[in-house]
Each structure stands twice: as C-alpha cells, then as structure tokens.
Amino acid sequence: MARTDSMMMPLGTPAPDFTLPDTVSGRSLSLADVAGEKATLVMFICNHCPYVIHVNDELIRLAHDYQPQGVGFVAISSNDVDNYPDDAPDRMTEVARQLGYPFPYLYDETQEVAKAYDAVCTPDFFLFDGDLKCAYRGQLDKSRPKNGEPVTGADMRAALDAVIAGEIIPDDVQVPSQGCNIKWKAA
C-alpha cells in the first residue's frame, strides 16, 4: 500500500457533476440525487484499502449522525477492477450490504469522476456546502492504521458542524487525507 496524500481541491470549487451506477440499488444516481440541503460529502473509497477498512465504522456513524441534519452522503469507487477484482461492482454491493452503508456506493468505471475531483487516494473526502461549493477537503481525523490514534471523525465532524452553521472553515485547519493511491487503469 503506497500512502498518498489528497490533492486538496481549491476551496469554493463547484462540485463536479456526475451520474454513476449505484451498486446497491442498481439505479444511476447524479450529484443532484445525492446532494443534501445543507451539505454534501463525496467520499472516494474502495473495498480493499486498509485505510478505508480502518474508518468504515466511523463513515457509517457520520452518515447516521448527519443525514438527519440535511447532509447528503455518497461513496464512489474508481479503482481499476481488472487488476483489483476485490473492488469490482459485485463486491462493492456485497461490502455495502454487509456493512450496512446508509449511503449510495457508486462505481466510477471510466475514472473520469475521480479525475474531475482530483481524487488520488482512498479515502479522499470532499465536503460541499448547500450551494455545492467546496468547503472542506481533507482528513477524517488523525487516526491511521497502526498509529494508535482512535477513529473519531473529529476533523470531519468539526467541518460538518461548521458548514451546517454557515461558517467558513479556514484553509489552515484542513489537513490532507491519507490513504492508498487510487488504482488507475493503464493509459
């Protein structure tokens, strides 16, 4: 696993639109379909990454805690499934159902959505305000596999609370997420 830091989309950037298949419902969902009234969290994840596995339970807790407050959640996997079959859509469906993801788990087969967001690692988080402008991009919290820090979601929870309250999150408190690199298809 090659640890990669997120690229940190410029604050205020409009959320790139997308329409992707949801591996759980079988429907195609767009950004408008998953957007929340007050905020939207777009998460690039995958099944096999130890960084994602490490935070999965907190992602579920976050969704349960913040969806009732008007926050939309969506997870997207963009990995090359030919070389990483554990991340194939049928396995995505299996993992989402097994873990009880309370959010759609979309498959970005062409990897165009990951590129549009400048997503480079899993997990990579992009929080948008009610106008779908980037308000936070960065880490969930300080925990990483084997670093001994508890998974609390503290950074993301603070960002979500600020966005819901209409506050601006200063750039200097936004720390890049870290995780495995997205598994890009050969050119």
Structure described in brief:
With 187 residues, the chain is an alpha+beta fold. Helix content is 26%, strand content 22%.
Q: Could you explain how this protein is built, in words?
A:
This protein is of the alpha+beta class and 187 residues long. It has five helices and ten strands. It starts with a strand and ends in a 6-residue tail after the last strand.
Low-confidence stretches: none
Strand content: 15-25%
Helix/strand/pairing category: alpha+beta
| H/E topology pattern | EEEHEHEHEHEEEHE
Mean pLDDT: 92
Across the major sheet, the strand order is 6-5-4-8-9
Largest sheet: 5 strands, mixed
Q: Percent helix among the residues? A: 25-40%
Q: How would the global form be characterised?
A: globular
Distance between the first and last residues' Cα: 21 Å
Radius of gyration from the alpha-carbon trace, in angstroms: 15 Å
Count the helices. How many?
A: 5
Number of strands: 10
Topology, element by element:
Elements: E1 3-5, E2 19-21, E3 28-30, H1 31-34, E4 39-44, H2 50-66, E5 71-77, H3 89-99, E6 105-107, H4 112-117, E7 121-122, E8 124-129, E9 134-137, H5 154-164, E10 178-181
Provide key terms for this protein:
three-stranded antiparallel sheet, 5 helices, 187 residues, 26% helix, alpha+beta, globular, five-stranded mixed sheet, 10 strands
